[in-house]
Amino acid sequence: MNLRDRIDFVLVETSEGGNVGSAARALANTGFSSLSLVRPAYDHPASALAHAVHADGMVREARVFDTLQEAVAEVGWVVGISARARTHADRKPPLGPAELIAGLDALPKDTRVALVFGTERTGLSNAQLGICQDLLRLPTWPDYPSLNLAAAVLVVAWEIHRHELGFSSTTPANPDLEQARAARKPLAVGAIEGLLSHAQRTLEIIGYLNPQNPRIVLDDLRKVFSRAGLDDRELSMFRGIFHKMDGWIAHHGGPSSPNQPRGQAQKTDKKKT
User: Fold this and answer.
1) Average pLDDT for the chain
2) Which of 161, 183, 205 is the endpoint of a domain?
């Protein structure tokens, strides 16, 4: 599977149908075919089809999702495109186009990638950025950094397109690091979300989460797991830890563990009587 076939362009809550059509046309111009829409908010599909011109089939066949999590559940690397500087200490610094290309080259050849674009007015929300493992910031003019949505799609698609054609070259700053990264197969985002769901259940039982706002801790955990770049073995280790906690809780009078071996609950009950 070539690189173009492994990249999904994801438009989140797009409010103008013309932008969807123009984005589809830009993708067709650069050889891409995968377009996904998360909660599209435009009222005139005809505008999207008209702006797509001969790429109208891509608009008609675009996959539509209710949430960004669903759109990227099977993806190994999720990159959000934003004009905001992500400079908080708990976040990785934004990528530039060269770093994006180097990252794509370093991934295993069967890893899917999602490039995520936010709504026209406000871009990606903090919660949506939290789902992204990395952020791409395009080097626009600082006095007017915000790009039109379709223009941003075209710039990103063109950078990858010209790299595929051999018109650009990027040399990783740290070849050893890139080689190590290539040896690790990234987890699909859905696997991380499954781990977070398991963590939420266990942490709620032990009273660690604030019932009024459990997302604070869970969002922080998502950032930690995203920075760590967990592989299958590490995911199994964390799931095993939570399974052990669930079993201990069930054995000491708490709710039954979802993975409790058959017969264990009955044996525990007999000891109590």
Assistant:
1) 85
2) 183
